[in-house]
Amino acid sequence: MKIVVDTLGSDLGSSEIKKAIVAFLNKNSDVEVIAVGNEAELKEISDKCEIIHAPDIVPMEAGPLEVMRMRNSSMFVAINEMKNRGADAVISAGSTGGFLSAATLSLKTSTNVKRAALIAPFPTKIKGKKVVILDIGASNENSPEELNQFAIMGSEYVKAVFGINDPKIYLLSNGTEEGKGSPTGKQAFNLLKNNSNFKGNIEARNVLSGEADVIVTDGFTGNVLLKSIEGTAKMMSGMIKNIFKKNLWTKLGYLHVRKGVKDMSETMDYKSTGGAMLLGINGVVVKAHGNSDAYSFECAMNVAKNLVDSKVVEKIEKGLK
What we know:
The chain is an alpha/beta fold. 46% of the residues lie in helices and 17% in strands. The chain has an eleven-stranded mixed beta sheet with strand order 3-2-1-4-11-10-5-6-9-7-8, sandwiched between helices. 44% of the residues are buried.
């Protein structure tokens, strides 16, 4: 297996990604990693993996055409290496829009795919249970037909990655009744009714309840939902910490509940998901968190490996056919 890694463009720089590559390879000696970035920064791991020099960083606001013109950027070179050398996966923590659009233009969508979608597993209140949501930002708007297709792609992802044979599919809406939703959502609902695993609408407040396996939404709404969940989780984490730091008694109280707090932190740890996959592309394309530390980026590499092992791209093509 060959995995191409874009080592530039993340908030924390290449140092954390280098640590992730070393940690990953120490556990996965059967995987070949091609690290793309500034050769001077990567030379210390040259005994672990192949290094390809590409010193330019794609700006966060870059669009697909700008990425395609930046021939010496680590992102462009990484995508190109995957395409030309037949690598199994490519990973980047750089510009989301640039990476996803350039990967789509270069690698092309799979047969029968109308629009690629960004999918990520979210933690739920049930420890160990994940719900996948798509699209969470690959597009700003989607047609009813694309939403219907997202349900199929999401189902195949859940079957391949989590081993759930009959995943429960829901459509994100502003109410659970059939008549609720945007005009696009209502049309998508009518199409989704033909899917035996479709269970109806779901409201945002129940997204993390553990009831659903797949939640379908348009890219704009999905991205807003993603950032709302991340912001709320960060706020709640800070508030809980402040409660226990209030005085001596609250600090003593923490000693009695710290196991529960630790369990909650592990359940809601978004870093363990590693990143999101662009479904519907010819190959495994993983977008790692922009602020990935070594642990989070290693998780993204594990995600890429597991997706290749589970043959998720081939299964999605078969499911759509």
